[in-house]
Write a structure and sequence with these properties.
Blueprint (H helix, E strand, L loop, with lengths): L1 H11 L7 H7 L18 H13 L1 E5 L31 H9 L12 H10 L4 E5 L31 H11 L3 E7 L28 H21 L5 E5 L10 H11 L4 E4 L26 E5 L15 H13 L3 E6 L9 H17 L13 E2 L2 E5 L5 E6 L10 E5 L3 E7 L4 E8 L2 E5 L9 E7 L3
Parallel strand pairs: 1-2, 1-7, 2-3, 3-4, 4-5, 6-7
Antiparallel strand pairs: 8-9, 9-10, 10-15, 11-14, 12-13, 12-15, 13-14
Helix pairs in contact: 5-6, 5-10, 7-8, 9-10
């Protein structure tokens, strides 16, 4: 485990997010954002309407929970035989023995304290508005009771629990809270014999045979995957987002057009996120572990972990609430949504350090959320530690000042551009603050006695 931990810690600990290029250097599987010129706007008005609603939410949660949670290791990737340093594996075991051990965790994964209502309570308290749950990661282990495989939570150590169909209960808990609902699904499946066939070795993340030599195997894999997607879209309640991972397999490979046509009859306007597959089925883009360098004017989402890993690991170095707020402010000012990765424990709950941090984020959003939710981009969106968002009227602006962790608030803060007119209000207490302008420069005098941390202000934009 040391290799991957050291890489993550050196690159990410204390800085929260990195550029997509830095993230790519740390982990080879990181999905970078597509180029702006690659984005294809949907033509379905219901999808456009759903995207607009989703862009109002701004803050969501992505849950990774699976076999990897039992020992607290990197999700799925340790069973991939690619020779790269971010895939840790027990060096005392042969590769085949390791895979047997890993897949055998099915019989040890017994989350007897599974409490999706607690998950939903914590994330609602944090101010999150949408959720995405990992129904199946690349290892092929299903967190739902699939009719097409017994490699699932419902057929292992948890099989006698009345909540063995985990995904159903997770989705139900969040749907009752009014969240926008997202279903994560991995297109590659390393447990499926029609993707990694046992006749051959597994040299990398892709199918381990030549499709032209075994077209029947590939057809079986395609049908299996399509069946599972249809199963999720039919039997697990209403969805707003289908979030497809594993970009080395395309949507075309799994007949995604056909799946979406059927799914959108049940879920009108369903947002398709075929990650990193440029084209009509990547309805929003998903830079991973990083934030785009500049503002973007099409739908996108940064997915970033609360710790250094997507799933739960013991004694994780979690980001501070102030860091999460700073990331959220930057992402929203650049036009995106923030999907925060949280790993439930192997026992089935959100652990206390996460609860405490997210509660503080929620406290800030309850006072300052007007500067985040339902906002849109504004041309001058950043100056130093200050980020700017706009009300949909385009006239009301918000300035969000994001000091570094542990930094004492200064007596004044200054930014260039975005000149205010009339009164300026500190959202945290609703009171007016004093400011002055000199040419293009705005200087705000902070009231005495403010608690150190991010601040948000509302003002009307002065016409030039």
């Amino acid at each position: 485990m040391k290799g991957i931990k050291q890489l993550f810690l050196s690159c990410m600990l204390g800085v929260g997010a990195v550029t997509p290029m830095q993230a790519q250097q740390v982990q080879g599987f990181v999905h970078e954002q597509s180029k702006a010129t690659d984005y294809v706007w949907p033509t379905d008005q219901q999808v456009l309407d759903k995207l607009d609603k989703w862009q109002d939410q701004k803050f969501g949660v992505l849950f990774h929970w699976g076999l990897y949670s039992v020992p607290g290791i990197v999700e799925s990737w340790s069973i991939c035989s690619e020779d790269v340093d971010w895939i840790p594996r027990d060096t005392t075991m042969t590769y085949e023995d390791y895979k047997k051990w890993y897949f055998g965790l099915k019989d040890k994964f017994n989350p007897v304290n599974f409490n999706p209502e607690q998950w939903a309570d914590v994330m609602q308290d944090a101010g999150m508005k949408y959720m995405i749950f990992t129904t199946k990661h690349h290892d092929g282990f299903c967190m739902f009771d699939s009719k097409y495989t017994d490699f699932s939570i419902a057929n292992g150590a948890f099989k006698d629990n009345p909540r063995k169909n985990v995904a159903y209960h997770v989705f139900d808990a969040f749907r009752k809270k009014g969240f926008m609902m997202g279903c994560y699904f991995s297109k590659p499946d390393w447990h499926c014999e029609w993707f990694w066939n046992p006749y051959y070795a597994t040299p990398n993340r892709r199918q381990n045979y030549k499709i032209e030599q075994h077209p029947d195997w590939w057809k079986n894999y395609q049908q299996f995957t399509e069946n599972q997607l249809n199963e999720l879209m039919t039997d697990y309640g209403s969805f707003d987002i289908l979030w497809l991972d594993g970009g080395w397999v395309t949507g075309d490979d799994v007949n995604l057009d056909r799946v979406l046509e059927k799914a959108r009859q049940i879920h009108p306007g369903l947002i398709s996120v075929d990650r990193s597959i440029r084209g009509k089925n990547e309805n929003y883009q998903t830079p991973e572990r990083g934030i785009p360098e500049t503002q973007l004017n099409y739908p996108w989402e940064s997915c970033i972990t609360l710790s250094n890993d997507w799933g739960w690991v013991p004694n994780a170095p979690y980001k501070s609430p102030e860091k999460v707020i700073a990331l959220l402010s930057e992402i929203v000012a650049k036009g995106g949504c923030f999907l925060l990765g949280v790993g439930p424990t192997p026992d089935g709950i959100i652990e206390q350090p996460v609860v405490e941090r997210l509660h503080k984020v929620g406290e800030w959003l309850r006072k300052n959320g007007e500067a985040i939710y339902n906002t849109r981009i504004t041309p001058v969106y950043n100056d130093g530690k200050t980020w700017f968002t706009a009300n949909k009227d385009g006239k009301t602006l918000y300035a969000i000042y994001t000091p570094a962790d542990g930094e004492t608030l200064p007596e004044t803060i200054t930014w260039k551009g975005n000149l205010p007119k009339g009164k300026m209000v500190l959202l945290a207490n609703g009171k007016k603050v004093k400011y002055r302008t000199e040419g293009d420069l705005v200087t705000v005098t902070l009231p005495k006695g403010l608690e150190d941390g991010p601040l948000a202000f509302r003002f009307e934009l002065k016409n030039k």
